[in-house]
């Protein structure tokens, strides 16, 4: 599809943020929704929807955000576009702190950051024509596009693959996929720099999902857009994201380049999510499923578990996971992980070996292939690391013993890891 050039020039070069430079920076971002009770509406607790997020989004990239329902993805999207006021932390957009900007302070920035919502049925006013809906941002911002609003709206409709002649039609006259295209046209009207798409295709038929995802991809290529795409399903963000953040109960547990995340996920939760993505390969139709089934429900965000929040469902959890929250560390270039016992990497807490009872139960539900693979990859990576550090120790003239210590898994037999938890 050919997309007409925007009248105001390339987004990526507009406003001084060059591709690859930081467009959005989030530090320690928090949102706690108060729970109030009684006549006096006293606060009795809080929903820890987003609980300390740190990440950056570079101009021109697509950051995918995935996680189960209720993990705080939408809240995060609304916080970074400042549709919600954060409880803590900071949000910087183009180097400017926008954390506590009021409505008037945010108004000029609204042009630069737009949101696409999940439900193309409820996000469009049924009483307004498409022309009014897509043209609304011009009115709200007091912008008069060259050639008039009508001409610009028709151009935008064409950009998203809709017939510009349908300017006077109403939302109910369009299919779900077309309505989502209308939502995208509205988001693009003011030539934004950052587009946050919250589950942009979840409400659509699978056959239409690919069309909308491809449209978003095409628009990014042509207009130099920066995306944060939120989805509960890795298969949606898989093809469009440059980097992917995996969220669990209000926290990022892994943030990595797409390739790294798919080839060697380090957080057990990422591994479990990935095992749930179906592989469309007819040759595997009789293969034994190695899907990782997580035990129990997602704990309540009102009183999240202590230590690592995933420990209640993790098959690798040990004592330290219940007491100490693992920091989000860059364990490999381009891969940040918050885990004491990561996959595909040397153990971060090798001294702590006693598996929790819950973990032992979770282990029973894991596919054997998954456990075997997990053990093999961890042992292989640990062996490579041990080799590398032994080599560097020899080069530096040091004794080679400490290298083996720093990668204790290297010495382990390649038995399933969860089963060999005691010896880890
Ligand atoms: N306005 C609100 N008041 C109180 N709690 C809220 C509010 N908005 C969200 N929450 C709670 O915050 C938590 C995170 O919600 P959020 O919608 O951000 O999750 P999500 O990962 O986007 O889930 P989904 O995919 O189902 O939308 C949930 O427990 C939710 O109930």
From TrEMBL:
One Gene Ontology term of the molecular function aspect? ATP binding
Q: Source organism lineage?
A: Bacteria, Bacillati, Actinomycetota, Actinomycetes, Kitasatosporales
Record's protein name: Dipeptide ABC transporter ATP-binding protein
Family annotation (Gene3D superfamilies): P-loop containing nucleotide triphosphate hydrolases
**Coiled-coil region list:** none
The similarity annotation says:
Belongs to the ABC transporter superfamily.
Query: Cross-referenced PROSITE patterns, in alphabetical order?
Result: ABC_TRANSPORTER_1, ABC_TRANSPORTER_2
Which InterPro entries does its entry note? AAA+_ATPase, ABC_transp_ATP-bind, ABC_transporter-like_ATP-bd, ABC_transporter-like_CS, Oligopep_ABC_C, P-loop_NTPase
Record's keyword terms, sorted: ATP-binding, Nucleotide-binding, Transport
Residues in domain ABC transporter?
24-274
Q: Which domain of life does the UniProt lineage start with? A: Bacteria
Return the annotated region ranges for Disordered: 378-424
């Amino acid at each position: 599809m050919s997309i007409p050039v925007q009248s105001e020039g390339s987004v990526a070069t507009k406003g001084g943020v060059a591709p690859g430079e930081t467009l959005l920076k989030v530090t320690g971002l928090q949102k706690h929704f108060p729970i109030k009770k009684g006549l006096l509406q006293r606060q009795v607790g809080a929903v820890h929807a987003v609980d300390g997020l740190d990440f950056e989004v570079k101009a021109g990239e697509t950051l995918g955000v995935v996680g189960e329902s209720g993990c705080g993805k939408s809240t995060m999207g609304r916080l970074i576009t400042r549709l919600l006021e954060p409880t803590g932390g900071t949000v910087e957009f183009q180097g400017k702190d926008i954390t506590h900007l009021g409505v008037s302070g945010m108004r000029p920035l609204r042009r630069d950051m737009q949101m696409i919502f999940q439900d193309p049925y409820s996000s469009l006013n049924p009483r307004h024509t498409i022309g009014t809906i897509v043209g609304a941002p011009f009115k709200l911002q007091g912008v008069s596009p060259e050639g008039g609003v009508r001409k610009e709206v028709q151009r935008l409709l064409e950009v998203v693959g809709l017939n510009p002649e349908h300017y006077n039609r109403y939302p109910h006259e369009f299919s779900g996929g077309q309505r989502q295209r209308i939502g995208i046209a509205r988001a693009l009207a003011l030539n934004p720099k950052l587009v946050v798409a919250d589950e942009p295709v979840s409400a659509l038929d699978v056959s239409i999902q690919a069309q909308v995802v491809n449209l978003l991809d095409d628009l990014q290529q042509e207009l130099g857009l920066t995306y944060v795409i939120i989805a509960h399903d890795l298969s949606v963000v898989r093809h469009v994201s440059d980097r992917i953040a995996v969220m669990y109960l209000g926290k990022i547990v892994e943030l990595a380049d797409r390739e790294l995340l798919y080839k060697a996920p380090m957080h057990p939760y990422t591994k479990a999510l990935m095992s749930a993505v179906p592989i469309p390969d007819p040759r595997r139709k009789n293969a034994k499923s190695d899907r990782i089934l997580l035990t129990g429900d997602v704990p309540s965000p009102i009183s999240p578990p202590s230590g690592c929040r995933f420990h209640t469902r993790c098959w690798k959890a040990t004592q330290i996971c219940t007491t100490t929250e693992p920091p989000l560390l860059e364990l490999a270039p381009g891969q940040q992980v918050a885990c004491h016992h990561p996959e595909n990497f040397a153990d971060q807490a090798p001294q702590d070996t006693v598996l929790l009872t819950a973990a032992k139960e979770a282990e029973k539900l894991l596919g054997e292939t998954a456990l075997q693979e997990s053990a093999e990859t961890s042992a292989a990576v640990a062996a490579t690391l041990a080799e590398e550090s032994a080599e560097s120790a020899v080069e530096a003239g040091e004794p080679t013993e400490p290298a083996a210590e720093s990668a204790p898994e290297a010495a382990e037999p390649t038995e399933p890891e969860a089963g060999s938890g005691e010896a880890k």
